[in-house]
Amino acid sequence: MATDVLILGGFAFEDFSVPNEMPGGGNQAMVVHKLPGGSRVIDTLGPDDAPVAFTGQMFADNAFDQALALDAMRVAGEVIPLIWGGQTKQVVIEKFTFKVKRFPNWVTYDISCVVAQDPTQGDLTAVDSSVDSNVSSDLSSASSAATDPFGGATVPAGTPPI
């Protein structure tokens, strides 16, 4: 992967700092309802990308400063672009740890990023409707049904109650 471009936020991994491998993929979020008799109903909820976690080492005169710059991005907790393998994802650095092997030239690192948005899947943090609006809508429907159980229909005189 030494010739690939890997950019996290404004930090470009170059030369020896590029990790040997990069993960991809994830899960399908779902709820499985197990019914009597062994049958199942499966509700799929959409993609659930696995964290993008990678390990590497930096050999440079400023390797320690580079590690501190990456740690500052973790501390900021902002959504930043992760560019590699011809794709771009918006991520938040979940974890960044480093070890100084030989100050200041040799530093090993571990990074884990949570995917906030994958352009191929849309915004993974957005919710189409809130629980409050759904509950309000349901209560409104229930209220109108309770005050007008026949939906505006007239009941002929002498009809026995239900």
From TrEMBL:
It comes from the Bacteria. Residues 138-162 are annotated as: Disordered. This is Phage tail protein. It comes from Bradyrhizobium septentrionale. The lineage of its organism: Bacteria, Pseudomonadati, Pseudomonadota, Alphaproteobacteria, Hyphomicrobiales.
